[in-house]
């Protein structure tokens, strides 16, 4: 299979981003409806969070979209409550904190309500607002990118976290290949790949594909499960099962980026 040059992928338009987001919201609606009893307290790969905390964090993400003052309030609170934690991570911890202890039925209702409003709002927000930018982990990004690309990715990756915690198979969904392609584009478009050599990586499984990361002639090729590699890139798993040329294997397993 011919490798797609990751640096040439580009961005989907707003309408397509809403398709991605709405598909994830439907998948989350079904997942939350299926969680019972003490499954809400199952620990997840996300450090201190259980399943209910991830739902609370995601509700907080939508609230930050819907309420203009929510993000700066939580950002200030994060610095005060978690002074030793990376600010954006502390912000997400505050989102989960503020919903901890919410009964499951209310978590389900609030999730559907705030995300229904958020996805409509994102689709109609004015261009001047979308051009507003922020710096996260030293990387500058505008609000349109956060809302269109990162929120759908966050929903997708956390859905895998919850499925893992529950011991259930993860259905990557009908648009997984497009979400993953955006990750591969970001690896190259941002500072994350750095000075690593050009390589080809075959991402196997639903949502996979073959990509060239880096510029110039590839030094080798490696293969890895697509969801497993997303876990690795996001810092969830430092030991993915990768096969291929040593130089390519080293390059792809050592790269990390914020999700």
Automatic annotation (TrEMBL):
Domain Mycothiol-dependent maleylpyruvate isomerase metal-binding: 23-162
GO MF annotation list: metal ion binding
Cited InterPro entries: DinB/YfiT-like (IPR034660), Maleyloyr_isom (IPR017517), MDMPI_metal-binding (IPR024344)
Top-level division of the source organism's lineage: Bacteria
Protein name: Uncharacterized protein (TIGR03083 family)
Lineage of the organism: Bacteria, Bacillati, Actinomycetota, Actinomycetes, Propionibacteriales
